[in-house]
Here is the input.
Amino acid sequence: MNLRHWLPWLDWGRGYNKASAGQDGLAALIVTLMLVPQSLAYAMLAGLPPVMGLYASILPLLLYALFGSSRTLAVGPVAVVSLMTAAAIGPLFPAGSPSYISAAMLLAMMSGIILAGMALLRLGFLANFLSHPVISGFISASGILIAIGQAKHILGVSVPGEGLVQILPGLLQSLPDTHLPTLLIGSLTLLWLWWARSQLKPLLQRAGLAATMAGNLAKAGPVLAIVVAILCVTLLQLDQVGVRVVGNIPRGLPGFSLPTLDLALIVQLLPAAVLISLVGFVESVSVGQTLAAKRRERIQPDNELLGLGASNLGAAFSGGFPVTGGFARSVVNFDAGAQTPMAGIFTAMGIALSVMLLTPLLHNLPQTVLAATIIVAVLGLVDLGSLRRTWRYSRQDGAAQWITLLGVLLIGVEAGILLGVTLSLLLFLWRTSQPHMAVVGQVPGSEHFRNIERFAVMESPNVLSLRVDESLYFPNARFLEDRIGELVAARPQVRHVVLMCPGVNLIDASALDSLETIAERLKTAGVQLHLSEVKGPVMDQLKRSTFLDHFGGQVFISQYQALRTLAPALTLATRQQDDQSFLIQSLDGRRQA
Amino acid sequence: MNLRHWLPWLDWGRGYNKASAGQDGLAALIVTLMLVPQSLAYAMLAGLPPVMGLYASILPLLLYALFGSSRTLAVGPVAVVSLMTAAAIGPLFPAGSPSYISAAMLLAMMSGIILAGMALLRLGFLANFLSHPVISGFISASGILIAIGQAKHILGVSVPGEGLVQILPGLLQSLPDTHLPTLLIGSLTLLWLWWARSQLKPLLQRAGLAATMAGNLAKAGPVLAIVVAILCVTLLQLDQVGVRVVGNIPRGLPGFSLPTLDLALIVQLLPAAVLISLVGFVESVSVGQTLAAKRRERIQPDNELLGLGASNLGAAFSGGFPVTGGFARSVVNFDAGAQTPMAGIFTAMGIALSVMLLTPLLHNLPQTVLAATIIVAVLGLVDLGSLRRTWRYSRQDGAAQWITLLGVLLIGVEAGILLGVTLSLLLFLWRTSQPHMAVVGQVPGSEHFRNIERFAVMESPNVLSLRVDESLYFPNARFLEDRIGELVAARPQVRHVVLMCPGVNLIDASALDSLETIAERLKTAGVQLHLSEVKGPVMDQLKRSTFLDHFGGQVFISQYQALRTLAPALTLATRQQDDQSFLIQSLDGRRQA
Here is the structure.
């Protein structure tokens, strides 16, 4: 049972048959065609030799298939994580140097350990720190940053440095040095990819192909661009005139390797590793859930953590760099009909074959073509309209999104996301520290109690009924003290305060302290605290403290009961009269809702 | 109006009269008697020349009286903040050196700026980060740490280092070097102070004094110890035999001074300054609120921040160190009958007079007596029983308290409190990321809906009614996606999901995204999302997004309405029959509550 929980393939492997294998095989073929150029491109984006992108698409895919719970997620190098890798290691070592490569592998290992650790300790909730506006701002900014960073490859110039502030002026300065053949190839590729994204499938359909077939063929658009570009470079010997090409890619499978364990470097990379793990996990889980829901399947966040953790460890030990589940390739995998993670295993085999056989053919692939692939892929990530939408919906969320976007663009990848996370946590704490509370009164002729500011209700002058619409815990414990103090100070006649707790799911130790403080403070002012409508589990927990023994008040089953008990005793003068005579009609000057 | 908000003395100053002045004057006299030895002692605890304690008790008191909102709070050096000051500066400079002194003033200035900034930006809610278990664990640990740190003065030995791990072995090693006369004076003082704390007042009362008079006199117990000790040292020339005395204290008021602004040092001290500000604020506000409530007065957290900020700036510019509102002295001030902050102004004048006139008399005050004063004061802070109580009440809160206590004792003051804050925030996020949700069904014969696991209710097989008992925001947005996906995956017959939102006070941008994702995912699986019982303000906000236009479902005024609308349409076969025939009695196998 436990083993089946951690190894989902024990489930799907059982009923695996030829039909599934056929579908998985076709999906794997299409994903492989897509993944070969993408892997090379993202390795380049991460500042690494292109072959590492291929290495990162073999063992990680196999391991995810063993441990991951999504049936259609396609794992490998992705744009945002590659950018984060470059941002983390770039300032430490020269790109592509042995130390740089070793650090990238170390980063993958750390990320793998963090993710697997989160799985075993059930810490997946940590990903909640990343609110949607922060992620959206971060991804848009990453897209812009990556696209601008790749522009130098399209122009065929060298621009040193990281970040918008360094790259943009550098680009402008080096415009006169633009290498025209490179720019021509790059621009044509950009145009072709842009056009193929939306127009190729309809065209093929008009040419008489079935929709599925046309869709699958259209996905080979980037491959066509690569083949044509390689042919051009080879036939016209464009590398002789200065078009930079990928060059020699080592042939054969990666060997098993261990990243150098440098403690100082580990400490230095730790924040980046944590962020890469969290961002990668969030991206992967949201893709996985979307695809699973389409077939009414489920994914398990814990298994996803373990699957991604194993993938990253696999990447670390086979010459790769941090990986995660990618959006585009997973959708392609799903649309092409993948049924089980076996598609991922087939894809890994496809990439492995490519490394063994195809790499000599890729020698003449121009870097500008890879850059064009990246630019078209990442511009799809940029969603500036979301900034406007979020701002209109909520100023606070909008501010978090803007701060993250600007932080990533102007300060740096990690600083930007940390700023956003901090701001959204602060705003969350601020919001949650002021829970909704309402002074309530009795609806005439009923046992119901409603907000006195919204309804025409009756109150006793001696009893303050306060409904709390939130669990009581440390972020709002002080607010509770403040608010009750304020209300009682403003009502000199009050002798009893009844806290109505139907919305209280938890009272933590801080709130318990606050309740004790409140009861004591009220007592010194001649007022008694009571509770009403306390939920069962909360009552059980309160019984584990001494609060109920010494706070001096009662716990009423209902607010109505509380009023019936407390108010008559306080209004001896009118006790003989009608039961409701002590209540004041509070119609005047109050909004009716 | 605005000016009156920031300068509370414009209010109380208006009606100030001779009677108030008399009461404030008496209270000030008693607090001054208490504050002179305490100020010297806490300066020593902070590793500073004793006179700085007196300096920190003049200008800060005046400024608090101008800006603070508590009528009875007594500001000055306190034990915990002095310990934090020593912990922050101790590792950087030799105690008592000019750089050390300058850093302490800088710390006061930074703390003043942080507190005043929090006041102006209304960031007082940041203090909520410090949950009660963390504060309690921190204060107990501080008490233990301070008491053990002072033991060397009682023994008359030198023990270098900070923290339990360094001091305890050092103390044991130097036991043979104990200076007996010092130990004798220290122990006698300890015994006297300990006895006087509880026994002196009853004794004086039995001797015929009135309760108030006896109480006020009893508070002079420490002063008596000091006078006797000074007399003994002077008459017996004990300083000649090695009893360490306070020595020369400069006479006269402090001059205006500016701390050296060293940017690197500021960066280094920043975390300590933030923690000192927050801890000081929390301690001060809780004392202030407790005392205010006794007279049904209010304090304003923003004014408290400003008052404490001004106090610390005052300390920085007049040769002092970080200050805050102290518990013991404020209670003494309150009990002695202080009516307004004028008592604080009188106290400042009293301390100023002492600095000008009394300092020569304090030359022969033995350090061991001051250490005894500190030990008796801080042992009152240690509340180990609270560890047991909190642990019994809640494992999570108990863990936060233990971690803070052990962290402060074994690792360090700042590290311990940061550990505790981080842990309690993580636990909070974990709890809040799993809000209570219940699948609900209709109570037969009513329009009410209740949890199907607790009540015998009726459900439609096609409609899933889910009640959310929590606002929807980013920490729980993903949980919502998970939970709905899970529930729908387990119920293949479901065609409609109705999210019942009576407990939802807010839907932030993350939760809005999640709702859109959920609606879309459900749609691909042939299920439609609806909402019911959405509160007015939440509805208004939803209308500012496009969610309502394209999610495809309806927003029902009540869950009953939703069921009446959705369920008949789905059960065409039974539409002609009784209105409730489509509902399944779900009595079997369910717990009744």
